[in-house]
Amino acid sequence: MTMFRLSLLSLAMLTAGASSQVLAQQQQNNPTTPEEEAEIEVIQVRGFAQSLFRSLDTKRFGDVVSETISADDLGALPDVSIADALTRLPGISAVRTGGQAAEINIRGMSGGFVFSTLNGREQVSTSGKRNIEFDQYPSELINSAAVYKSPKASLIEGGVAGTVELQTASVLSNQQQHTFTANLRGMFNDRANEVPDGEEVGHRFSLSYQGKYLDDTLGVALGYARLYQPSVATQFIGLAYNVSRDLDNNTTPEYISEGFEIQHLGGEETRNGYLASLEWQPHDAFSLKGDVFISQFDKEAFARGFRVKFEGATAAITNPIYNGSSVIGGNIGRTRNGFTRVEVVNDDNRDYDEVHSYGVKADWDINDKINLVFDVSHSRASSDFRNGLLWSLVAQDATLATPVLDPNVSINYQLNGLNLPAIGLSQAAAFSDINRLMVSKYGIYPFVNSDEVNAARLDLSFDLELPLVRSVEMGVRYSARRYSNDRSVFEYGSDGAFLTSQPPLRLTQDMVKVVNFKGDFAAYPSYLAIDLDKALAAWFPQGVPSPVQSWGAGNPDVINGNPSSNVNTPWSVLESGKVYEDVLASYVMLNLDTELFSLPLTGNLGVRRVTTDQSATNLSDVGGDPLRGAQNIADDVGLINTRYAFDIVGEKYTKHLPSLNLNLALTDEWQLRFASAKVISRAPINRLASVTSFNISDTGEITGNSSNSPFLRPFEANQYDVSLEYYFGAGAVAFALFYKDIQSFIQDDVLPEFDFKAAGFPVPDFIIPDIESGVPVATRNGSLFTAVNNSNGGYIRGAEIAWTQVFKELPGIWSGLGAQLSYSYTESEVSLINSLGGEPFETSFEGLSKNVVNATAFWEYEGIDTRINARYRSPFVSSQVGINEQITNFDSELVLDFQFGYQFNDNLKMLFQVNNLTDEPTKSYFGQQAMTGTLQYFGRQYFLGAVYSF
């Protein structure tokens, strides 16, 4: 048998139908002798193996440390979003939301440190932060994805953890003139029957077309992807330890949890994605391409069950069970003046998210030495999240005209670590009794935010072909980002009581049904599920009053002919605002091509200069003093508040970001990489929003307080990467070490002698503290307590090893067997203090798992394509969502996915997949496993469908 060795690049290009120009260049760089040419035997590699080779070649011939996923890989797996696909890469892990990957972590750093682009353009987010929500991006519309772990000067700044570059199709590079693909898959969740009104069945559908016209000078791509899926879960959530009392009279306080929730979650998620691309290349030296990407993701969800509120400061607590100084069990009772209670919850949440991305790019080879690229883009995101809550309490008699709370509240509980706790509730029978259960509060709390960025960039490259420098690149980019968030509210009723000043919200038999917990949760009490549409139609015959942004006058709508309640809601105004961010960046980069010890050395050396001008609207609490700028500020209902001064504050700063990437070819198979760079990640965009309270004392000293700050500087780090890579005929092995020296973090702290006036705050030069004397006193700077960049950083370091191989040497049907395995180890000296578990304890950096393992075994033979993937991550720190977002420790998790496909012919392929094969739950805890956080069970997702293409 004749044998041969092709580089992975040649193999991938042959199987993918690459252009003859690329192959010719590869052959020129690696010429073969006539004897070698006679021994060449072409190996046909298709499907998943082909996509692996393409990804390895991108990594091998790239000029930075990176990981990639090819188009075939994304097209072959029915990933719900691009996030699922990215988690199969070395050093990448995911935080699951609702059982699915939404946020990705890179090398132990959370999503806030990950910068993302689409077709090289900055993307804004629906999250209200900077990190994009990857489940917004359908995998069917993404042609390739790359994770850059080391930067270069030409990349847009913003990722301390790394940069994720998503790419859509480039039609003119296709080998075929026209391609059309239709994809239809049904899905089923096996735990949906445990959630009353939970949907079991969903579907995915996509269409795409790519075609070349006018002698291959005009390319058109169109794509549509639809996802409809049930969202179901059953969960226990333990809440933070926010109260301390000396229960055993030993002068040392014990910490008491806020309580816990046991709930059914259900609903539906609908995502529609649209893609359009027009590419024009009238001649070889010029091309013009326009792209449009739109994703609309609507989520309607309910949370039903009950919430136990201990109110530990006033509760009667007997027989406490301790874990150290924290209470994890005992009997909790309501005192005469206390507020201990059990709320039956029927919440209704709706989230309407939309992302738009538009861009036009012109690429012009001015001559055979000079290339110019000009790109303009617009990205915008909007999110309309409406949290609707409906809480009920147990009354002595809910049929009375004026219901009275049942004071006989007794709660027996004992947490059971990462297993479900034992619970006994004295009012359990009343939760499903319409004559005892009474609605105490209905509220709607919209959170509407918008985020957009307009950008333009110009890049020039010059081929020099000098002994050391192959070419030089330089460019400039300007972007203008605008972020706004608006809060509003409608409330009726009270959290912990029945208000006698309002007509009661009565339940009728046609509004409710009794709901039982099933499966692992079957021991917990039944409760009444409320049909919200029927209830609201009865309570609000004229329609539900619209939420408003108000200082606290309530709104003028009426309910059943009576005025709605006056509520104290100044937060709806204070938490609303705008952020402005203008960035001017420029860079110069040398592309290296030389030799070191007679070995080929390539790479790049450059520096990026970034000037950021950031500001935000600010409401300063000046106590209504007109001398300090107090203004008449109206809310949505016309109420005037005179306590605050409105202004815009912020600052401007410049950063220089050098970078170096070197690649030394030790042999044809072995190469050594080294990378070093200074990197930044800007603060979450919502942390730049500003509300400040400040005071001027009689001596003229100015002091202030602000939860956020428009003066926040970016996170900074110096990072270093070394990797050794070995490429062989049907696979590769890579070993990497990395080190990040984090320079600063955001934390709340005191800034002494802060210059309020220079920062733009409305402070006078003088005050008159004594009206009778009339003697002016000069103001002077004092302290500002706010979010700041501290200088107590630390390292994050680790190692990665990855192995990929197709066992072509095996006989017969086993020749299609292959494997992909990666392991990452990460550690950090950075420790954060968390007090949500009671006594303050140290936690690791958010998102850091010491051990991350990704393993895939696959087999392809005569149309059969099957694989199983396992993703493991050790414990890490992230946020759980209860009443409020809370930082907790998440337990390790192992998620298994399975896929089977069969290719009937060149056009038709059948697919079957199971996600979360072992029904792996999400489990978290507060510092120690005895203090339970989240126990959430999602179920398995089954997919069955077909792909037709021609």
Task: Report on the architecture of this protein.
By secondary structure, the chain is mostly beta strands. Among the domains are: about 10-45, no CATH class; about 575-715 and about 745-790, no CATH class. The protein contains eight helices and 55 strands. It has a 22-stranded antiparallel beta barrel. Strands 1-6-7-4-5 form a five-stranded mixed beta sheet. A four-stranded antiparallel beta sheet has the order 16-17-20-21, with no helix packed on it. A hairpin with a 2-residue loop joins β2 (about 90-95) and β3 (about 100-105). α1 (about 10-15) packs across α4. The longest helix is centred in the first third of the chain and has 15 residues, at about 45-60. It is globular, with a radius of gyration of 30 Å. The protein starts with 7 loop residues before the first helix and ends with a strand. The relative contact order is 0.12.
Which keywords apply here?
950 residues, mainly beta, 22-stranded antiparallel β-barrel, five-stranded mixed sheet, disordered N terminus
Q: Output the radius of gyration.
A: 30 Å
Q: Which strand-content bin applies to the residues?
A: over 45%
Number of strands: 55
Shape: globular
Main location: membrane
Keywords: Cell outer membrane, Membrane, Receptor, Signal, TonB box
Organism: Alishewanella tabrizica
Pfam family, one: TonB_dep_Rec_b-barrel
